[in-house]
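Aim 2 progress update. The chain analyzed this quarter is reproduced below.
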Amino acid sequence: MFLVKRDNFNKNFIIKGLITAILLSAFIYLSYFDIEYRFINTILGLLGLYFLLTIPRKAVFIAGFATGILWCYWMAISLKYYDLIFLTPVLLIAIGFAYGFIFLLFTLYDKIYFRIIAIFAFTFIAPFGFNWMKFELLFIDSYLGTSKEDFALILVSLFMMAKLKRMKILSILPLLFAFSSQSGIYIDNPDAKISMPQLNIKQNLKWEKDYQATVFKKNFEYIDNAIYNKKDLVILPETAFPTILNKSEELLAILKNKSYKIDIITGSLYLENEQFYNATYYISNGDIQIAKKLVLVPFGEEIPLPKFFVDLINDILYDGAQDYSKAKKPTDFVINNQKFRNAICYEATTDKIFENLNDVKYMIATSNNAWFTPSIEPTLQKLLLRYYSKKYNVTIFHVVNGSNNFIFRP
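Predicted structure tokens:
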């Protein structure tokens, strides 16, 4: 009898943890299937946070484990391109345990007010430099706002709901102040007429030497088509030219020649002083400007660990390859007398790339999502870009290989 009760007790923890994880992740998967109803997302988001605040401590670890996998399982998809697919279960378990322990820290002192403080503090933290688990995103397609102030009001409302024995109706008051109508959007367009070709080159082909001539030919066709349609600017995605472009005189000569008819922005690698950079090339009237990536992808482009472990991991898993180098500050391009902040993939979803915007109202973000498709990664990235566009009042032109292009307006 005791064993039966204990099994039921453990199952209860597991069920509560899994339900919490599903509620905290539902908005991503609904968006993936183009199901975006503000009422549904509002209710699911509030329920997910309420459960996280009130479920037993043992269930919180399960919630974190499952939430981590539901939000980040796509990281494992890229392993096949490094011939490391055998590490998929290891990576998924590591992701689960990492977020399980992070969630468990919310209950270090197991009182609801401590959980509220810890969860709010987590919105300012990026473990290992990775910040894609943002609880504010729960309400990106809801009737509630996504600012820090709005999130604090939501947590206060849930605290009142949990603690008030009578007059629970009062818990609605903070939500009224966090209400967001999301109406009256001002659509601001730059003067430049922009071409954003949609690329869908598979990652396993992109860097094959025998296929590169095809990639280059297609890129030039996109540029020529933009010229034919009398565009001012054509944007190609991250590493659209899968080579070290500044070491390819032939390719640069062609691009420079075409740049007298249209401004060109394209992604490629850049080599300088024996350091490799993930970079954006802006080519106009034969001149070239280089924007080096400022924020590298943790464990993808750099390993955020002490040098001994970095060298060891690179030697064992990446055949001794070195991490990318990075810029010291953001880069702005002036196109048609208007400034555009450059961002490459992950950095477009970090606060650092938005520093010192001053009069910059536009951002050109380029990505290569072929690493992670098919998965929810492009959906999560899209939601994050919407969040940052609104947060910093910047229009983002997102040009992608492997998933859909978008323009995000505040």
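The CA atoms of residues 207 and 242 lie 6 Å apart. The chain has two domains: 2-177, 194-408. These observations will guide the mutagenesis experiments scheduled for the next reporting period.
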